[in-house]
Amino acid sequence: MRIDIWSDLVCPWCWIGKHRFQRALALLGDDAPAIEVHWHPFLLDPDADATPVPLREAYAAKFGSEARAAELLAQTQGTARAEGLPMDFDRGQMRVTTLPGHRLMWLAAREGDADAVGEALFRAHFAEGRNLADPEVLVTAGAEGGLPEARVRAMLDSDEGVAEVQAALGRAQAMGIRAVPTFVVDGRHGIQGAHPPEALAEALRKLAPPPAAGDGAACGPEGCEA
């Protein structure tokens, strides 16, 4: 089973959704098919650049008031902590572009461990308040996925990965993906949102391909029976 996941590195529900997805796979247990996961970029804030803007200030402008921004951040933080994630919006998070981070994820998918790099970037932003446009933060996250420092710096000092990430963003738009996280199973079935692990596990169980003949089937002279 191939699962394509669209997410943004500053989307709190994408971090929550990532861990709920992992718990859903664990809930499948012996029923879990072989899973092939591919991460894809999404820009929740395509107008953001490398200039840091305090996240609370950006949220206040987006949602109309500091009070409303504080309420939304507190609610999301509470959900994340209930999932065991150390989300802390008092660490001075900044609104910046996530394009460099997505380029790093693109590189990790080819030369390292994209899942580990993504986890490191989520943690850097949400738990530590690090600037995801800072090359030093990206180098540290890359190391979590087995990428050598020199390789990450060489990518950041070039245009490597820019065209590929932009093309992937275009594909998301063409597919009608407007919110994240979005999970697409075997290129056909979309699941949008950070659903509870139990609901996600049930959806995956229903969408899993049937076992191939001979995979646990009882076979006789007239065929195989599950």
From TrEMBL:
Mind telling me which Gene3D superfamilies this protein's record contains? Glutaredoxin
Sorted alphabetically, which CDD domains does this protein's record hold? DsbA_FrnE
Residue span, DSBA-like thioredoxin domain: 3-204
Q: Which PANTHER family match?
A: GLUTATHIONE S-TRANSFERASE KAPPA, THIOREDOXIN SUPERFAMILY PROTEIN
User: What protein does this entry describe?
Assistant: Polyketide synthase
Q: Which organism is it from?
A: Luteimonas terricola
